[in-house]
Input
Amino acid sequence: MYVCICKAVSDLDIRRAVAHGACSFEALQAGTGCSTCCGGCEHEARELLADALEREQVAQALPIAA
Ligand code: FES
Output
């Protein structure tokens, strides 16, 4: 699903950016271009970023099965 129409950034792109180290909205913007044009996607992009960061933290906290 496209979140940012101006820059063709999808929810998957946002999750990938977080998986590759984006940990702030500014880093997401720099890495994907999301919300760097009209700004109409900012609210949704911020929500998706927060969700992706939370999932990433939970994934890193899970013990690795031996
Ligand atoms: S829709 Fe994202 S900057 Fe316009």
The chain has one domain: 2-60. The chain has a mean pLDDT of 94. The beta strands are 2-4, 9-10. The longest helix spans residues 42-61.
